[in-house]
Design goal:
Layout lengths: L7 H11 L14 H18 L7 E7 L14 E5 L8 E4 L2 E4 L11 E7 L8 H19 L3 H25 L8 H7 L2
Antiparallel strand pairs: 1-5, 2-5, 3-4
Length: about 190
Amino acid sequence: MNLTPTTELEAVNRLLINIGETPINTLENPGVVDAVRARQTLYDTSRGVQAHGWHWNRDRDLPLTRTLPANEITLPANTLTVTFRGRPDETFVLRGRRLYDARKHTYSFAQDLVADVVAFLPFEELPEPARQFITLSAARTFQENAIGSDTLSGFDRRDEVRAWAALMNAEGEEGDLNILSEPSVYRVLGR
């Protein structure tokens, strides 16, 4: 019995079991096409869930330093979104990995900036409620793509809804949420 948070291997095996396939022993060169597809489904689902931005994958007030001599700001490769609080008149957007000033039509900045950045984290760096929801959501998607059983989807969807509720509960308890400090709300208020 494994008394640790869900591992990526356990999550992939959950997807495989969900379509009646035999679990694998390793993620490195599994040699099974369904295992490769299951891992990709888990990865895609994780990226989609994390793109929403949660307390555990959002760096608030992250300094963004210009690189010289071009004065460009390049964000880490795992950056999913970047938002600016307190600057409703600015139109800074992420293009590729570089920040772009859409108002001035340039990648060059006169000063360093501070932003909220949502990062795409590896599966095993996620809190357990996120791992559970992502695993169950990916398992449903994987089953629907591989088998397409409405009956199995119904069972999977119920588990997914419970996991979503647990994730939202954890976010509410641990996230120190304040509606006025959330970037999406701030953008609306700044209009």
